[in-house]
Amino acid sequence: MFSYFNYSLFKSWGFISFVSIVLYIIAYNAFKYLVRKLLKRQKIFKLLLQRKTIEIQRKNETLEKNNLIQTRLISIISHDLISPLKFIHITAKTLLERNEHMPPELYQEMLTEVSNSSKELELLSTNILNWIKYQHENRRLEKEEFDLHEMVNQLFLIFQGLARQKNVNFVNEVHQEVVLYQFMEPVKIVLYNLILNAINFTERGNITITGGHTHKGILVKVKDEGLGMSEEQINNIMSEHFIVSSATVDNRKGNGLGYLIIKDMLKFVDARFVIKSIKHGGTVVSIFFPTFEVRSNQLQHGKLETAVL
Amino acid sequence: MFAHPHIIIADDHSMIRKGIKLLLVTQFGYKNIYEVNSCNELFVELKRTPATHLVLDIIFADGTAMEVIATLRQLYPELKIMIFSMQLPEVYAEVFRNHSIHYFLEKSTNEDKTVSYLRKFFSDEPPPNRNPFSTTSKNNPFTLLSPRELEILHYMLNGHKTNVIAQNLNLSNSTVSTIKRRIFEKTDTNSVAQVLELAMLYNINY
Fold first, then answer.
1. Chain B touched by A114 (CB under 8 Å)
2. Which residue of A has its CA nearest to B87?
3. Strand, helix or coil at A75?
4. DSSP character for B206?
5. What letter would DSSP give residue B87?
6. Which of A101, B67, B96, B199 could hold B204 in an S-S bridge, CB 3.0 to 4.6 Å?
7. Which CATH number applies to A142-309?
8. Distance of alpha carbon A200 from alpha carbon A278, whole angstroms
9. Which chain A residues are within 8 Å of B15, Cβ to Cβ?
10. Residues paired with B36 in a beta bridge
11. Burial of A153 by CB count in 10 Å (0-12 exposed, 13-18 middle, 19+ buried)?
12. What is the pLDDT of residue A18?
């Protein structure tokens, strides 16, 4: 047996080397294939990892930003809520105690201040609440249809008292038939803040809200004839790193918290906005709710039959 | 006591100005009381009326009292000034003591004490000694900051970048950076976010 093997091995040397070369090639290719597969998998993992890292970074940034805003809100609550409240109390108490000896003009002056300040504090508290309410991820909100003209009317009612004091007129020029299919509360909060800003920075004149269809969506404009903003102020508002400054300082610096909330809410409803302003010539804020994006959103949720825009 | 002091109340909240005004009218019978809501208006008003007394907040929309106090002292050396602020005296009083302003009242003080403090201020009596065993924290790291550092701190907490602070305060970028670094060192922090958190903990308003 041994000799036969030996002999045949010797005899078919060429065959053997052929076989070993073939085997070598097969082994080499198999190895190459495996390595390539591994590399490919590694690449996929790397990409996944990269994507995850970016995701985490983004989440971190949002968290950090929210943290910053939260600290800011605490400062606003102590500076712009608590001490004015304290002085409302002191003033009202003094008015009660010293009623008889007080000149009527002073009495009037103080009551007016108490009335204005408490209204301002109510609006500020509402806004702080608005911001906190929408900070949670688990927003189980659903879009719904609503009448934009009617919503603007309701909002104007909230500010009627303030407007009358300042000789400001409200004009609702939203087309009657405009029905928005959107998250209702966030849209309302945006308009609330825009009207509040407009009032705060307008001494007299009209505040006009227009709204209507364009071929790609719905365009809403809030126009005032107030102080206006400089380009620097607008850029500051539009910048990603915008931080709120103090909230209600004699209605002059009032836009900080407001615009922060407006930007947050508009991101939420997928709308875009533009500010146009002339210093001392008024401000126009245009908001565009695109129809197309809303539809594709509805498609994803299998709700195409309710698309009304 | 001044027979007819001319008083300016400088505060950015109209409710607080009116409240103080009402106290001054009803408790002391003073009549000449003027209100301003910014540093700018303060100087305009001072030019217009010969004020004898100033009740001054620290933080305004257009700057802080720390920035204007030197000019104020120089232009109106006779003016009597009382600081009336949310800020803690153990952190901020020294800034104003350096300009020989010795009256510093916290806004959180209760009504009776506020009235008696105001009475001392207007009748030129020395301010009452501060209770050394007050309820405020002894470990407040912000007490370590110098006047300049407190000035910069305000803008830092408001999220302003170094170059903007430099522009606002007429300083060079490198000076502002150095001061910022010292603030980080003294408060044992590494970032503005950390300083913000610390400011919240230790009741520094901005």
1. yes
2. A79
3. helix
4. -
5. S
6. B199
7. 3.30.565.10
8. 16
9. 84, 87-88, 91, 113-114, 117
10. B10
11. middle
12. 87
* Superfamily (CATH) of domain B7-122: Response regulator (3.40.50.2300)
| pLDDT < 50 regions, chain A | 246-252, 255, 293-309
Written as one letter, the residue type at B63 is G
| Alpha helix ranges (H) inside B58-110 | 65-75, 89-97
User: pLDDT tens digits for B2-34?
Assistant: 468 999 999 989 999 999 999 999 999 999 999
Instruction: Tell me the torsion sign for CA atoms B197, B198, B203, B206.
Output: negative
**E strand or H helix at A181:** strand A179-182
Q: Is the ipTM of this complex over 0.85?
A: yes
For B141-201, CATH number out of 1.10.287.70, 3.40.50.2300, 3.40.430.10, 1.10.10.10 equals: 1.10.10.10
* CA-wise closest residue to B89 among B27, B121, B24, B134: B134
Domain boundary assignment for chain B: 7-122, 141-201
Say if strands B7-10 and B33-36 run parallel, antiparallel, or are unpaired.
parallel
For B177, residues 6+ apart whose C-beta sits below 8 A from its C-beta are B162
Beta carbons of B193 and A67 less than 8 Å apart: yes
CA distances from A268 to A124, A187, B36, B64 (A): 21, 9, 40, 37
Tens digits of residue pLDDT in A128-173 = 888 888 776 556 778 889 999 999 999 999 898 889 888 899 999 9
User: Are A71 and B199 within 8 A, CB to CB?
Assistant: yes
Backbone angles phi, psi at A41, to 5 degrees: -60, -40
| Length of chain B counted residue by residue | 206
- Return the amino acid letter for B164: V
3-state DSSP of A201-231: CCCCEEEEEEEEEECCEEEEEEEECCCCCCH
Mutate which of B11, B12, B17, B18 to disrupt the A interface (most A C-beta within 10 Å)?
A: B18
What is residue A302's predicted lDDT score, i.e. its pLDDT? 38
Q: Does A63 touch chain B (CB under 8 A)?
A: no
